[in-house]
Design brief:
This protein is an all-alpha fold. The protein has one domain. The chain has helices at about 15-25, 30-50, 75-105, 110-120, 120-150, 155-180, 185-190, 195-205, 210-235, 245-285, 285-290. Helix 1 (about 15-25) crosses helix 10 and helix 5 packs antiparallel against helix 6 (about 155-180). The longest helix has about 40 residues, at about 245-285. It is globular, with a radius of gyration of 20 Å. The termini are close together.
């Protein structure tokens, strides 16, 4: 179902997205926290199994350092990555629907949110892979090239080229993150397919990309603050790769997954609020009218 413009409304504002996003997150803390614990538990179980089998480091670290793959049981690695992709996307989908329910003045329920997330899981995962490819994999190639040039320590020209590659990677990352910022809500709320949702996101964010850049920066600031708070109260995140006691390992696991999952919750809420604010500002469609796709 396509939501047709009705009239021009108030302008899209960053402060509205951040303010309403934080309000929705706090008011629905129990629902979002329950979803986080429920969906993180299987991943923690696989991580703990790997620890008991003598793995050094966390499976989640393999996203950034694949050099340790040979040290960890292949079966566990496969189970973990398949589970991670399914559960992190299910969390994003469920939280998006829960936030949407809150915006339309309805109660965000764990079961209902999970049900909606599961019903749209395949297009959500498809969107995830596409955004991962263009916003993470492509910039990563430039980052690797820049690192190779920096390690070579050659001429000044090589150093300049490394800097150019770094800047290019950062620009590509932000360009695609901003363009696809509200693709997930389009999948969940409007029932779009993967490429329909991506096109919808590009369409409705046009003219507001600078504001979405600010929202993205603010999100990363919140992420860093969250990282520092959890690191100081739960466990030393930086020491997790080098296990001491099992107690230290347990604290590190809780710490890292709390950060990972809560960051996903916050990103999903901000994206949902931004999506609804865009519809209100640019197309004159409020959350209740948008909800016609479900009613």
């Amino acid at each position: 179902m396509r939501l047709e413009p009705r009239h021009q409304s108030a302008s899209f504002r960053v402060v509205d997205v951040i303010g309403r996003g934080l309000s929705v997150s706090f008011r629905n803390f129990f629902c979002f926290a329950s979803l986080t614990v429920l969906l993180a538990a299987p991943l923690l179980l696989v991580e703990w199994t790997a620890v008991e089998k003598g793995a050094r480091g966390l499976l989640i670290d393999l996203w950034w350092d694949a050099s340790r793959l040979s040290e960890i049981d292949a079966g566990l690695v496969i189970v973990y990555f398949v589970g991670y992709i399914i559960l992190i996307n299910l969390l994003a989908a469920a939280v998006t629907f829960g936030a949407f329910q809150a915006l339309r003045q309805r109660e965000a329920r764990v079961g209902e949110s999970l049900g909606r997330g599961m019903s749209r899981l395949l297009p959500v995962i498809g969107t995830y892979f596409w955004v991962m490819f263009v916003a993470w994999l492509v910039p990563s190639l430039f980052f690797m090239a820049a690192d190779a040039l920096a390690d070579a320590r050659g001429s000044a020209g090589a150093a300049l080229l490394a800097v150019i590659f770094w800047i290019t990677a950062v620009v590509i990352f932000f360009v695609f993150v901003i363009r696809y910022f509200v693709a997930l809500p389009a999948v969940i709320i409007e029932g779009k397919s993967v490429f329909e949702a991506l096109s919808r996101s590009v369409e409705i964010t046009r003219g507001c990309r600078g504001k979405f850049f600010v929202i993205t920066i603010i999100y990363f600031v919140f992420y860093i603050v969250l990282l520092l708070i959890i690191e100081s109260t739960v466990g030393a995140v930086g020491a997790v790769t080098y296990y001491g006691s099992l107690e230290d390992t347990g604290a590190a696991l809780v710490s890292i997954y709390a950060i990972e999952m809560l960051a996903q919750v916050l990103a999903s809420v901000f994206a949902c609020v931004a999506y609804c604010e865009l519809l209100r500002a640019e197309e004159g469609v409020d959350a209740r009218r948008t909800a016609a796709v479900f009613d």
